[in-house]
Amino acid sequence: MTGPVSAVPGASPDVVATARHLARWLGLAATPTFAIMAVLTALPGGGPAEMLCGAGHGSLLGGMVPMYLLMSAFHAAAWLRLIAERRGAVSW
Q: How many other C-beta atoms lie within 10 A of the C-beta of residue 90?
């Protein structure tokens, strides 16, 4: 199965390799970004945006915090793959 980058006519192998490398690092950036957003959203004193996005004031079970935590967990696959490759357990 060919990926979208390798399906580009005339793309050099260097361009394809660079695009794949950048996509991999972008995938690694998602998990810590969402985790930081969850922590910052959970902190008190969010200002006017807290009134719009906070479903249950004072409750960490409602609103944006659980969504950011779930998104962080869903994007953790890139980190798990990296750890597995470093340990030599799996070759993708």
A: 10
Pick left, alpha or beta for residue 5 (phi over 0 → left; psi -120 to 50 → alpha; otherwise beta). alpha
Provide the sign of the torsion angle of the four alpha carbons 40, 41, 45, 48, taken in this order: positive
pLDDT band for position 7 (50/70/90)?
A: low
CA 64, 33, 23, 74 dihedral sign is: negative
DSSP output for 30-43:
HHHHHHHHHHHHHS
Instruction: Give CA–CA dist 51/5, Å, rounded.
Output: 42
Distance in angstroms (rounded) separating the CA atoms of residues 11 and 67: 38
Q: What is the pLDDT of residues 42-92, one digit of tens each?
A: 887 655 555 555 555 555 566 788 888 899 999 898 888 888 888 886 555
Six-digit token string for 33: 């970004």
**Cβ atoms < 10 Å from Cβ of 73:** 12
